[in-house]
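yo

u said u wanted the structure for the complex thing, so here. seqs first:
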Amino acid sequence: MAQTKSDAQQPQSSTLPEQMPNPEGRQEDCLQINYHPQGLMNLRNSGGCEAKS
Amino acid sequence: MSRHFGTALPQEANRFSVSGDRRALWLGPDESLLVCADQDAAELHRTLCTQLKDQHFQLTLLSDALAVYELNGPYVREILAKGCALDLHVSVFLPGQCAQSSLERVSVTLMCEVENRFRLICRTSFADYVETWLKDAAIEYGYSVSNRLK
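structre next:
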């Protein structure tokens, strides 16, 4: 299948490892990426306005 | 609301209120996103629906639809700025602020918890892409991934 422009712009890094050390050895500069399971709810509230009948 | 959820809905645009592990994010004049511990969501949903039954509201559980990432590090703003048009400068995007935007074409909600710690909320279906993008963007600083979405 031909690669689309959109496909071509995807980061080509699907095989990136779970850890990448800082190139200059400063591990304190690393980004910590932590999936954080949370409960989420969307609340829509008219602020007390009555719904139109 | 604060009596049942633990924190009041923020009245100021693009702010979130905090109480323990709960967050209430302003998404619009009549829309908020409530965040709580994963195991509390179902019970809290039932409680809030009961308590708000006399009000005109809609409360939808989105725990499976949305994924939350915590991002921590001294260069977190620079990394996010590679794919996000928001002004994430430390003097502009302050702790307690949140905003809906896009990160490399993916709709996200960003929350600034403290100066160098953000929460990123995206659709679960885009989580793998977002995680890959974050790793790619963070290569020059180094990164580590913990507790991956399975």
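The first strand of chain B starts at residue 16 and ends at 19. Chain B has four helices and nine strands.
cya
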